[in-house]
Design goal:
The complex is a heterodimer of chains A (113) and B (114). Chain A is 0% helix and 58% strand. Chain A has 113 residues and is mostly beta strands. Chain A contains no helices and eleven strands. Chain A starts with a strand and ends with a strand. Chain B is mainly β. Chain B has no helices and eleven strands. Chain B has strands at residues 5-7, 10-13, 19-24, 31-38, 42-50, 53-56, 65-71, 74-79, 88-95, 103-105, 109-113. In chain B, the strands form two sheets. In chain B, strands 2, 4, 5, 6, 9, 10 and 11 form a seven-stranded mixed sheet that branches. Classes of the chains: A mainly beta (113), B mainly beta (114). Chain A binds chain B through residues 31-32, 34, 41-46, 49, 51, 89, 93, 96-101, 103-106, and chain B through 4, 31, 33, 42-45, 48, 50, 55-56, 91, 93, 95, 98-100, 102-108.
Chain lengths: 113, 114
Amino acid sequence: KNQVEQSPQSLIILEGKNCTLQCNYTVSPFSNLRWYKQDTGRGPVSLTIMTFSENTKSNGRYTATLDADTKQSSLHITASQLSDSASYICVVSPYNQGGKLIFGQGTELSVKP
Amino acid sequence: DAGVIQSPRHEVTEMGQEVTLRCKPISGHNSLFWYRQTMMRGLELLIYFNNNVPIDDSGMPEDRFSAKMPNASFSTLKIQPSEPRDSAVYFCASSLGLAGGRMYFGPGTRLLVL
């Protein structure tokens, strides 16, 4: 079983709509949880980084939440745009393991006009 | 800043050949990471360096893979001999620090081994 599970695997929404992506993790203890956006053919780009003590972090239309008790995180996208079409990856940094990151498999989001 | 620079962007080679991937991290970053991405396995950490020193290479698949960082502005990942199962996108990333720093990924090298 993966230590970082994301759902759904893929999602199709209409432009202008909101959506929420889920991330469940078993990594414990952990230093921080990150969300990345990866456009097709490009490297991942960091959206948010939250430490274990933070509950929410925003970056424009992207808002990430973290519940360390239930080991769940979500990424909410508001007023989606065509350019939001990408893979969104949840990443957990285990505590005291230096630069090691544990990646989820990603959610493939497609925003249609 | 130009961001993390990788070369080549695409590489097609035949099984058994040596492949060398190159990376220039963001100036001032002291940590460098090599990742491999496939559809089946997603993103996997191969090796990472801190201050030019390899810290953890437990993700390197086997002895055919080797990585070096001779100075703060350059790193290589070498596969010798290459095999078809090595076909993947290889990403280099850099950050300031290890655990909490924002990581910046390069554009990747798409490798196809025939």
